[in-house]
Amino acid sequence: TISYSRLFDDMPLLFNTQSPLVLDVGANVGQTIESLLEVFERPIIHSFEPSTSVFTQLTERQYNNNVFLYKLALGERKEQREFINYKWSTMSSFLELSGDESNRFKDVEVDKKEFVDVSTVDDFVTNQKIEKVDLLKVDTQGFDIRVLEGARKSLASDLIKYVLVELNC
């Protein structure tokens, strides 16, 4: 089994810099931020978390000036959409958990639902005048393909160098 933090250990070998620009889509409480800060000297991290309660926890952490936090979801288009907060926050998503017997997470209970703002990777990098993304990390509990659809132009133009998507089977 590969631990999440060990996944990042070899990342400095992929980049020509100790200051990679990372889009962290599905930040949760900052697990990816912490891992990136451990393996890079000065990463520039833009982290996106749509859940109000989880975003509050994220903002309570003390990060350096190169970590930017956004209470925002990324998807395939700009919209407002209902977000499902589960009692286990790492399972929260726009999508309902399957009740199928093979789903080991089927019994995780809903905490609350809320409407959140959704934008796209393409709009974000355009608005922020970002010319290069070293890593697009996407961990959105089944919504990942929609995030990638919203990054279509950035991916086609090679603005994004690497993509990391978490998958559970």
Please give the radius of gyration in angstroms: 16 Å
Mean pLDDT: 90
Low-confidence runs? none
The beta-strand count equals 8
Count up the helices: 6
- Please provide the ordered H/E string of secondary-structure elements: HEHEHEEEEHEHHE
Q: What's the story with the biggest beta sheet? A: 5 strands, parallel
Broad shape:
globular
As a percent range, the share of strand residues is 25-35%
Output the structural class. Answer: alpha/beta
Q: Give the CA-CA distance, first to last residue.
A: 14 Å
Helix content: 10-25%
| Strand order in the sheet with the most strands | 3-2-1-7-8
Report on the structure:
By secondary structure, the protein is of the alpha/beta class. The chain is 23% helix and 27% strand. The chain is built from 6 helices and 8 strands. It has a 5-stranded parallel beta sheet with strand order 3-2-1-7-8. The longest helix is centred in the first third of the chain and has 9 residues, at 31-39. The two termini are 14 Å apart.
Give the structure's gist in a few sentences.
By secondary structure, the protein is α/β, with parallel strands linked by helices. The chain has helices at residues 4-7, 31-39, 52-59, 121-127, 144-149, 152-156, and strands at residues 21-25, 44-48, 67-70, 73-74, 79-86, 110-119, 133-138, 160-165. The longest helix has 9 residues, at 31-39.
SSE arrangement:
Elements: H1 4-7, E1 21-25, H2 31-39, E2 44-48, H3 52-59, E3 67-70, E4 73-74, E5 79-86, E6 110-119, H4 121-127, E7 133-138, H5 144-149, H6 152-156, E8 160-165
